[in-house]
UniProtKB/TrEMBL annotation:
Keyword Endoplasmic reticulum listed: no
Name of the molecule in the record: SusC/RagA family TonB-linked outer membrane protein
Pfam families hit by this protein: CarbopepD_reg_2 (PF13715), Plug (PF07715), STN (PF07660)
Record's GO cellular component terms: cell outer membrane
Compartments, record wording: Cell outer membrane
Topology of this chain in the membrane: Multi-pass membrane protein
Amino acid sequence: MDNIMKCTPLGEQKSLWLRKTLLIMKFFVLFLLLGTIPCWAGVAYSQNVKMSLDMENTTVHDVINAIEKKGEFYFTYNLNQINVNRKVSIKVENKTINQILDQLFSKSGIDYKIENRHIVLYKQAASEVEAVKQQKSINGIVADEQGEPIIGASVLEKGTTNGTITDLDGRFTLSIGKGTELIVSYVGYTTKTVKIGNQSTIKIVLIEDTKTLDEVVVIGYGTQKKSDVSGSVTSVSGDKLSKIPTANAEMALQGMAPGLSVNFGSGAAGSSATLQVRGVTSWKDDDGENSESNGPLVIIDGVPGNMSYLNPEDIKSISVLKDAATAAIYGSRSAAGVILIETHRGTMNSAPKITFSGYWGLSAVPKRLEVCNSAEFIKVRKMALINAGTDESRWPKYISEYERDPSQFADTDWQKEYYQRGFTQKYNIGYTAGSANSNVSLSAFYSKTDGVTIATGDEKFGFRLNSDVTRGKFKMGESVSYSRWSADLESNSGFSSIYQVTNMEPLAFLYDENNDGGYGGAISGMGMSDAGNQVAFNKLIDNTSSNDYIAASGYLQYEPIKGLIVKFNASRNMYFGKSRLFKPTYEIGAAKRNTMASLSESRSQTTNDLLELTANYDKTIAEKHNLSLLLGLSQEENKYEDLSASGSDFENNSMSLMGHAKSNYSVGGTKTRSALRSLFGRVNYNYMMRYMIMASFRYDGSSRFAKGNKWGFFPSVSLGWNIANEPFWENLKETVSMFKFRLSYGALGNQNIGLYRYIPTLSYNNHALNYPFDGRETSMGYAITAFPSSDIKWETTVYKNIGVDISLWNNKLELSAEAYIKNTSDMLSSRNISLATGYNSSILVNDGKLRTTGFEMQAIYHGKAGGLKYDLDLNLSHYKSVLKSMANPDYLYEYGALRTYVGGEIGEFWVYQTAGIFQNQAEVDEWNTAHGYKDQNGNWQPLQPVAKPGDIRFIDQNGDGMLDTNDRVKVGSGTPKVSLGFNINLAYKDFDLVANFYGDFGAKRYNYTKYQLERMDHVFNYGKNALNAWTPENPDTDIPRAVSGDPNKNSRTSTRFVENGDYLRLNNLQIGYNLPVKYCKKMGLSNLRIYVGATRLFTITNYKGYDPSTGSSVGQMGYDYAAIPLSRDFMMGLKFGF
């Protein structure tokens, strides 16, 4: 009791530390807000407030008084300088204070400055007055090709910083010099330059931009024009992701980028996706797989982060770096690819804007498996017992009792009771603003999703603050975010929840008020088995988890000379994890009892600190040579610690705190620390956008390796040639605007080997380490049980990539294709060592090799037909990963029907091959006469000695006369041959439609659920297929006979359970309506969009299991281990701004 009570203050201390950290973060955010308010508060008020004035032949003083009364402004001026008795006439309607003051003091020699509500009037210098006399006021409207006003378009006087933005009507007023030019721009439209003559009013029409060559993509530590990229990068805009309603940013990415695999192991509450870039990168034989080594590095606003905690609405763009040329700048962390994420930031000289979006929906599983009801279960069970020759006196009592009186049993549809129709909701609110030298973006979100299974669900909320301030040659800014995730998770007795739900006997009752807990199960005295009442487990067991994520980063940037930018960046990311599992006492039927309550709790904290210093120099020489140089230093430190405790034997189920436990105490904890220090650089050069070369390197030093192996050097180079910019291509330019070849080569490292592999580690609390010191008792001891692997070094992946990019017909059609090879060497592999060393273990060496090959293609078409605009995006990808060598040439990793071995593909299905069903005893005898072997006594041993008519015939592949694991054959892989994404965006007048398809082709799936429902060696429920089992009267079936105990092992791992895993799914469908601007204006809004949609609306597949897309981890791809399927969701939502 004392030991466990000591644990409680530790947990409180951790919680107190978290509260203190959150409090510090709150003050930090408050400080940042207070620091940035002066930069944009004036803009926030002065540009939001509009007023109307109609005053004839009055004084400036009277106008000032009117403004102060209407707009809560107050003026300061020197009466000796400002003639407020000057007669004026002014008539304005719904104008900003800037527009009113410009008109009031036009050509008067008076200027003004606005700080929030404070307006200072002052006399211009003589030179300024002369400049004012040379100016004129221009009024205009900016519209699109359909005549709709464009809100927020930038209007800038060429060669100056004098500018404004259009209002809700697309109108603007600007004082400009005579004979000047205006530059008008807006996102998604081509920038237009207009020369102003004598006119005082003007209408400017912007044309939608279909040109993508000058699109800027994010690369490591910078940006680059898409036309200049010579490496492999795929970009996805945040606008596309925002049309996919989800609280999970990873889920929105599926099918959006070729080469990026987004897989889901389960649809259960709290489940996350598995991301892979271009297949498998590493294989660790000591744990079967290493997800850390095969998952891409995620960088959010320049800092390593976690996409699971990111609000999709905050994303501005995502770039996927897929080859060494683009990823090498991140060195040892980037062997499996890099995902760069930019979040929304405010823009300079932009009016304050508030946006809100929300959606609401219902979710449910798309299908349920067909299982037997009570009467059908009794029928199959009887048939199995009869075929097994079991004497009726040994039959379970429930069979005769059911036939005598079925009313004493239930007929429970366990899937119906277990699955629920969940409600989901999500809300986002954002604010952006910008002044001449600063900008700010602030957002917050909340989401709550009910799980598709009873008593489960998760909840998320968080906020993000981004701001930037420019002062002369200095620029500084920060990003601060906080998010929290909490979930009520699945609870079960140790088996898969789906296994228990589908296999639970329908005879059992869901509820039983006589049981402890009130739930039913196997009926006492009836001889019933009990797979488990999963509804009861979910309801009674408290299984919760939560994570808090805090990320804070800031930068200071200095430009000492034109083109040279020196930047310092510092960040800290913190994760706080918490879990609780309380199993109360309960009695769920005759077979499921828990007589002693137990509790397990854990707390964890991860801290990632990063300091970076970079210098970037950009120079254009003679308008032909474009040069960009980057040099940087980086220092990263990662710390982790956790604390866990468990106990049992509580006084009652209401007393469920750890301090209430009375026995079986256990306390554990871990603390680790690692660091990475790096020097990196890059040279980027292109000549007239024809010839491109990019070379980069990273020199990483990691604490995970022993002295002498800590440092690794990872270089890369890429070349590009855009033939379309050659002089001889000029006549083809209108048809083919870009024809670019790309070639890249480079090496990347991998430090994910574990933290202390090179240090001898001690073991404790091992019964083999008991030492008898006094002849009567044994004392626990410490001993070095693992041989240190001090010589292990960096795992290295060498990439080779070749690609081509083509743009046709003024970039309406964009085509790209590329092929790649990545060879991973020096992978960790176990080698056995002699027992003479004193170690009963193996040693890790760098002997493993892996080879992944693949190709990708993408076609994007931007089109118009009348009033219809459309974008079509089709992408295809393929990869194959083969294990080339390990320290043990006979290495074999098995997971059920899956195998990974030297020379084979990662995750192949190896199963017994079936050859139909024996129809009569003559076929059995003939088969066993032809197949078998003679034992040492010369006696014939048939291949299937206990086979009977109705049993499955299995093939002896090696002809040794025995059926064993050597007779398994390869029947495919869980890795698809081709993955497809097809994305459609349509817009017609005020309506729009988005459809996102995704599919996998050429993959196999092992249907473990089918195995459970058709096997005869258990006594639980069956699938309805079992009703079609072989009988002499029903010979035309592929379901073997029902026989208790399954003597012929018909349910062994075989081709019977391997199915075609091809599928094509409509992942997302959304239809929206955008309210015309003129109606939005009447409501005080700048825009309003409402929509209805559905996710996973349909799936085209022949797969008989729940979901062909589950089973996603490396080495276990395609193994459908009775996972909860992904939900189908119907929802409606809206988005508006003002």
